[in-house]
Design a protein that fits this description.
Strand content: 15-25%
Oligomer: single chain
Distance between the termini: 50 Å
Shape: globular
Number of domains: 2
Order of helices and strands: EHHEHEHHEEHEHHEEHHHEEEE
Strand order of the largest sheet: 6-7-8-12-9-10-11
Mean pLDDT: 87
């Protein structure tokens, strides 16, 4: 049922409950207000930033017409360096959105965000990127799907694995602890590079086309977000008294606006009548690629070792992964102090102590039975890696 026209702040629209989000999606017209610089900050304890982005793209692709009202001081703040504000940068790249700037006296005018978009397209990551978040974005439906930060300017092809290694090494070199050996620092950078390359390559393979194989026609946006944060281990059921001080973490988020895991693997759209358990199983079939040789899918294979290699890398680094796609939300944590679940036995002949290719439910924690969430387009993956 349509809910008519709705006006709401950007943060509230993206951080509300599943029911509130569904009401926005069913509206005929939606006005998003960006009136405070607080809108550019990640809310404490809220949805992960990359999931909020996934909601924003879903509203654009599946929901109402969207109008955005920007306070003039906030718009000036964002357009000065839009790649440092991932949600607002994605908002600028959505197709079919009307942007309006409101001055302090209440006067309104149409926004001219062309120069800000060009800054996003041409942005190159800074080696001091932990000073702020950094978003490397591909706007496929705007003809800007191969930015120089992620694709070769000569061939237009995705960066080679060696180039990804170089990019990540540059970004992490200043963050290596002084008491870490050069060998350990090299292994750390190589592992992080593998994780980033594998995750972004999935957006190249599975995040650009509609079900019929043609390019996505509306708000086809992909990207990587780097962010240095302070965070505790993610287990929500841990007693507060057992939580130690926050640690420095590297947060890497990768997202796309494609078919999601179910559509990419099965070659069929995710309909309401598809059992949640079937969708959950498809996610795990995707993880089984390169873990079991006989698992195949509709799409092309990875040039690397796929999601299981990401899981292995995070186990080695003591990290965590969250996967949000369709109606499911899974996670695995290998952080210090978290229960060591779903690992192969040390006596295993092939993978002693290695993670089994399974996710736990993000909502209920420690169980492998999925909880239903509002359906979102594409896939969003977030990893946390301790920097100490």
């Amino acid at each position: 049922m349509s809910r008519g026209t709705q006006t709401i702040t950007l943060t509230r629209a993206l951080q509300g409950t599943a029911e509130e989000f569904e009401a926005l999606r069913l509206a005929t017209a939606l006005t998003l207000e960006v009136r405070s610089r607080a809108e550019t900050a990640q809310p404490e304890g809220g949805l992960a930033e990359v999931v909020a982005i996934q909601r924003l793209i879903s509203l654009s692709q599946l929901g109402p017409s969207i109008r955005v009202i920007w306070a003039s001081d906030v718009s000036e703040h964002v357009v000065a360096a839009p790649a440092l504000y991932p949600i607002q940068a994605v908002l600028l790249l959505l197709d079919g959105v009307e942007h309006v700037i409101e001055d302090a006296d209440g006067a309104r005018r149409n926004a001219m965000f062309g120069p800000a978009r060009r800054k996003i397209y041409s942005y190159l990551p800074s080696t001091d990127f932990f000073a702020d978040r950094q978003a490397l974005l591909c706007a496929d439906t705007r003809g800007q799907g191969r930015p120089p930060s992620l694709y070769s300017s000569e061939t237009g092809k995705l960066l080679s694995r060696a180039d990804f290694d170089s990019l990540i090494s540059q970004l992490l070199s200043a963050q290596t602890a002084v008491n870490v050996s050069s060998t350990r620092a090299f292994i750390f950078r190589q592992t992080v590079s593998t994780i980033v390359a594998e995750l972004f390559e999935n957006t190249e393979l599975h995040g650009r086309a509609a079900m019929d194989g043609t390019p996505i026609k509306r708000s086809g946006i992909r990207g990587i977000i780097f962010h240095r944060i302070q965070s505790h281990a993610p287990a929500q059921t841990r007693p507060a008294a057992s939580i130690g001080p926050a640690a420095d973490m590297l947060e890497i988020s990768v997202f796309d606006a494609g078919l999601g895991f179910y559509g990419s693997y099965s070659g069929r759209p995710l309909q309401e009548e598809v059992p949640l358990e079937d969708e959950w199983e498809v996610v795990h079939q995707c993880m089984l690629r390169h873990f079991e040789d006989d698992v195949s899918g509709v799409g092309p294979s990875h040039r690397g070792m796929g999601l299981y290699e990401v899981l292995r890398g995070l186990k080695d680094l003591g990290g965590m992964i969250e996967v949000r796609t369709g109606r499911v939300y899974g996670y695995r944590s290998f952080m210090r102090g978290d229960p060591k679940l779903l690992l192969e036995a040390q006596a295993s002949q092939s993978r002693p102590g290695m993670p089994k290719p399974r996710l736990l439910d993000k909502t209920r924690q420690f169980v492998t039975v999925p909880t239903v969430h509002e359906q979102l387009v594409g896939a969003a993956i977030r990893v946390l890696i301790p920097l100490n």
